[in-house]
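seq/struct pair 1
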Amino acid sequence: MNLIENIDILAAVGDFLAEDLGRGDITTRSTVPEGVRGSGNFLAKEDLVICGIWIADAVFAHLDPDNPRLETNYADGDEVETGTVFGRLEGFADVLLAGERVALNLLQRLSGIATLSRAFAKRVEGTGAVVVDTRKTTPGLRMMEKYAVGIGGCKNHRFGLDDGVLIKDNHITLAGGVREAVAGAKEVAGHLHKIEVEVTNWAQLREAIQAGADIVMLDNQTPDEAAKLVGMARDLNPEVLIEASGGMNLDTVRDYAEAGVDLISVGMLTHSARAVDISFKISVV
């Protein structure tokens, strides 16, 4: 089963619709005759990577389970050009109007994330590095947004705080040092959990690896600094995974990839992705 096709997503769609509809669509109720049927087309108004077709379909299905499913020749992950009609839905006009905004909000948001993720994935092609997301997601939309990152061609980092050990600067300060923090994590974490440590200099890098960290995150380093630290880390432990993080963008991400890191975490995949321009035009049938 697809990551996005689960009961949590279906429940969320109901909540999103309830937020928008409130006590009912008074505009449609007062202007559109009852029983009128319409046909709506999803139109890409810019070049984009589609993401969220299944969710858009679920929005209308939630409003009218007997409504025909969304018709499309496209799938999540397909790249389409400006002017492409990539989906069509026919049903009662009041249902189409009630679901339009929620469906578009989700489709535009997720397609925007997928489009930006595709651009990042293409930037690092051939380097061996993988671009990953972060927990900088919209509350309530994390599963969907991380799904969109994967559709775009990048990978997921932690889904939540229970998903892995990532020791950052505040943890190090509160624990009393890198070695103490790693030792505490090894004592408490399960055998399946890898331990990652954020480091900002050579001393922390060496201490983290010698303490047994599985992954080191090079935080806010220049590409040249990252390359030097990668060499030092490989000398200490050729098997350690190395991640770069901090202020990544499309202009710099390949420089970090060519510095030899394994992973590059990019917060902007989710926290700064622009919603792409998609319209849903309805006509009477």
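seq/struct pair 2
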Amino acid sequence: MIALQSVSAGYDKTPIIQDITLDFQPGQVLALIGPNGSGKSTLLKAALRLLPTMQGEVLYDGVNVEKLKRKEIAQKAALLSQHRSTPSIQALRMVLHGRFPYLSYPRQYAKRDWAIARAAMDATGSRAHEDANVATLSGGQQQGVYLAMTLTQDTETVFMDEPTTYLDIRRQLQTVQTARSLAHSGKAVVLVLHDLSLALRSADRVAVLCDGRLQCCDTPQAVFESGVLERVFQVAVHRMETPQGVQYYSSLKEESPCPTFHCL
């Protein structure tokens, strides 16, 4: 299990996240939500040691991440990044990059590596594009390929930074379904999402960030009932029972269309 204990991190000696204590539980989907600039991507980078901590520590199964080699970290946690380049490479070859943490130099793929990569492409609906050049695919198709590469890494924890970007509604729901399946298999899954309704109905726990600080982390119902969402996002959040289960939706508050706020 990965856990952050009183972690602060940022850039150029300026903290973006401050005093964050949070863990990612095996078998659960945690949705990380917050306004733009609240520190969600920074938190993921700190958890993966892509960004050094200014305070506190990140623990992997009780071991400080600073004591682990990059290869060891990559065998324990994978990241579907929000920002990335688009190389000119065959999609299947791109997906196989997820096996790099398990290969020694020179990298030679075994039958198992190919099988894991193709299974990941099946799981993300990208198998039909395995021979295509990634650069020629649509944004949604590229997202499927990168998600498959993340799954091919076969780690205990999977971080997805805005995984539904560029996706139509059907593929958004499929991506969340994939996240749920990964959690059901025993993995810890962390989703950075902007869609409040999607986060609330798909996660086991919801962590709310604002101004770089953790405001709340609890079950979707508890987070909804706390009122923190309306305070942080300045919208009205509603909950209703439907034949398909509990659904959430948001609406603008009447008093101010674009309020300026800071979390207390």
